[in-house]
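Lab meeting, item 3. Inverse folding demo.
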């Protein structure tokens, strides 16, 4: 990534509340090119919470960064997205694009 920090500071941040389905979570995870390895234990824990109705909308968002003006990269939320897929239910999240 050759993105200048000043360019990032001048772009708008878009924040939306979205119901993320398992299909949408799969699509979002296709943008996951720079995160650490997914922890199966974390995904399992989150998926169980989601299935039990114990997962709530919070400040923990799904976050994307725009790279070079034409490509979104997932920078936060890979475990939550994987848990939506494992739980096989839609879950509401805040999604941030910058």
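The presenter then showed the designed sequence:
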């Amino acid at each position: 990534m050759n993105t200048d920090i000043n360019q990032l500071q001048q772009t708008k941040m878009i924040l939306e509340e979205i119901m993320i389905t398992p299909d949408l979570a799969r699509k979002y995870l296709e943008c996951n090119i720079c995160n650490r390895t997914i922890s199966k234990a974390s995904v399992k824990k989150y998926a169980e919470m989601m299935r039990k109705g114990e997962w709530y909308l919070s400040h923990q968002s799904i976050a994307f960064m725009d790279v070079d003006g034409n490509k979104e990269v997932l920078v936060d939320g890979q475990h939550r997205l994987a848990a939506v897929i494992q739980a096989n239910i839609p879950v509401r999240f805040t999604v941030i694009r910058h």
